[in-house]
Amino acid sequence: MPFFVNENSIVRKIWSKSDTIIFIFAGSAAEFALNKAVDWLYFTGKLPSDPIGRLFSTVTYARQIVFSENEAALKAIDKITSIHGAVEASRQQQIPDWAYRDVLFMLIHYSIASYELLERKLSEAEKVEVFDVFYRVGDRMHLTGLPQNFSEWEIMREEHLKNNLHKGDFTIDLFKQYKKHLGPIRYQFLVQGQILVVPSIVNDLLQLGKFSWMGLIIPPYLISRKLKLDWVIKTVILPQKYKAQIRELDIR
User: Fold this and answer.
1) Quick one: CA dihedral 232, 109, 106, 160, positive or negative?
2) Domain segments of the chain: what residues?
3) Which of 111, 225, 238, 242 is deepest in the core (most CB within 10 A)?
């Protein structure tokens, strides 16, 4: 039976390492907080009460799609659609399509940016592969207004960044929740990681800073990874509660 994502796809390589996934969701956590539709993430109360747990819930669905056979992946996408439909019914409003597109756009951008930060530059064809996977997710969700190719996505991505981001009360509260649940030291690791992968407009709105000392740590970290010592570093900086779950993100 065919897989939703080809077994040799760059998307599988991107989503097979815990550190890459951590950067994907560090960047997304920053951008999520600025999205004008972030109130939807507050509607059930689950995100602010457990932002790290929600991250792992999202990771689970994403990896089901990336690593499952086609039928199982489609069922996972349909379940995501169903969950959002239930929230919409409860609120008696529809989540705007542009907000759904923003999430897909984030996954495309941060998949590319995180892999390039920790591994190597992607070719244009590999970037197109990343786009194609998440385009098919959006298409299965029956989203309207999706870009039809990677070049269109690049243009639309810039438009979304200019039009759909706003720093408001939800933004400030969500970052407070990140700090509360991570603690002050790990929270600084989060922010420093965000500086390395978020677009400049996201950085400017959040005032994260232009310099990240984490950029100095990454080269020796990559050496430690080759020596199989990366988990010594991860043990120090990752919350104890989630270490087992993060370790399971690595596919050897």
Assistant:
1) positive
2) 10-247
3) 111
> pTM value?
0.92
Residue 92 zone, left/alpha/beta (φ > 0; ψ -120 to 50; rest): left
Identify the bridge partners of residue 165 per DSSP, sorted by sequence position.
35
Residue 226 vs residues 19, 112, 220, 221, 222: alpha-carbon distances, Å: 13, 21, 10, 9, 7
Distance of CA 16 to the CA centre of its chain: 14
pLDDT in tens, 30-50: 998 999 988 877 776 666 778
Task: State the pLDDT at residue 46.
Answer: 67
Residue 202, amino acid: V
Max mean pLDDT among 29-43, 131-145, 223-237 falls in 131-145
- Per residue in 51-84, pLDDT tens? 777 777 787 788 889 999 999 999 999 999 998 8
* Residue whose tokens read 């080269």: 219
Q: What is the pLDDT of residue 251?
A: 65
Please give the single-letter amino acid code of residue 235. T
Contact (CB, 8 A) for 28 and 174: no
* CA 17 – CA 28 distance, rounded (Å): 17
Q: Is 131 exposed, middle or buried (0-12, 13-18, 19+ CB in 10 A)?
A: buried
